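Our platform keeps sequence and structure together, in a single record for each protein. Because each token names a local backbone shape, the row as a whole describes the fold. One such record is reproduced below, unchanged from the form in which we store it:
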Amino acid sequence: MSLRKKSFSKKMKKRALHRANHRCEICGCHVSMTTCEAHHIKPVSQGGQNSAVNLQIVCRPCHLKIHQTIDRRKKIKMIKTKNNQSDLVINNLKNTFIGLAKFLEELDKISQLTKDAVNELSNSLKG
């Protein structure tokens, strides 16, 4: 699929403007062929087509709000994903440190047993 954004034809935009009675389909303000904007309801990046059912006539302020909301949602989703990844890393580190602490406890026990055995052997050789 092309990375270039698809746009609606002038004829399709004119038909949609007539269908919307020259009103923004979001706020209802009056728009003309020169002041209206054609909005893809389902973005091209998500498989949306340049069809009449995917065309929404909007004024410039509403079009900006739509895309600001979409951008905000994308940013929130990205932040949540990063937070989830951070939580996984933190949990993995936590589990690693817990495992390391248990290993060190066992190592201390072995070290103490070794010292006790050396002392016992040393005492038996002296006596």
Observations:
- The chain has a mean pLDDT of 88.
